[in-house]
User: Which sequence fits this backbone?
């Protein structure tokens, strides 16, 4: 997987260099991105991060569109600086003019939400149930207290968990 993405990144840079007749510093490429984003360009660090799961599920479009999309951000930054809009006319110029691709802001890949554990807390209200994230549950274990806004009672852990 990394080889194809690295090759596409390099091809995008070569296209931009031929178009603008100047060279561009190559970015660091990382595959440590999860969640809903397919890719992220870190402008000041000259770094690209890609989502390996979304790549596996959408290889052809990902290589063509997503990689070019993120490279275009770095090229736009190197050409025009930080004061431009992320998906503004400079970025769109690169997407259309250099890569001959539609300047879509967002991907339309199907993204599966991961399951999360919720820790159930209660107060004295009749329907006072509060599902806490594992982070918030850990804070309670360290001594933090949370209160019900209605009855002002400290929320207490019921011992119940559920997966959402």
Assistant:
């Amino acid at each position: 997987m990394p080889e194809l993405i690295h090759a596409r990144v390099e091809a995008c840079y070569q296209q931009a260099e031929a178009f603008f007749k100047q060279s561009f510093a190559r970015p660091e490429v990382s595959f440590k991105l999860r969640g809903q984003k397919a890719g992220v360009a870190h402008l000041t660090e000259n770094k690209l991060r890609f989502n390996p799961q979304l790549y596996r599920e959408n290889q052809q479009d990902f290589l063509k569109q997503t990689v070019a999309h993120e490279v275009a951000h770095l090229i736009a930054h190197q050409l025009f600086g930080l004061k431009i809009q992320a998906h503004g006319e400079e970025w769109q110029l690169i997407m259309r003019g250099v890569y001959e691709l539609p300047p879509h802001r967002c991907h339309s890949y199907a993204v599966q939400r991961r399951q999360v554990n919720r820790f159930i807390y209660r107060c004295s209200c009749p329907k006072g149930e509060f599902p806490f994230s594992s982070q918030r549950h850990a804070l309670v274990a360290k001594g933090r207290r949370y209160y019900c806004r209605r009855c002002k009672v400290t929320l207490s852990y019921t011992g119940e968990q559920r997966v959402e």
Remarks:
- Helices lie at 2-20, 52-57, 59-80, 89-98, 134-141.
- The mean pLDDT is 94.
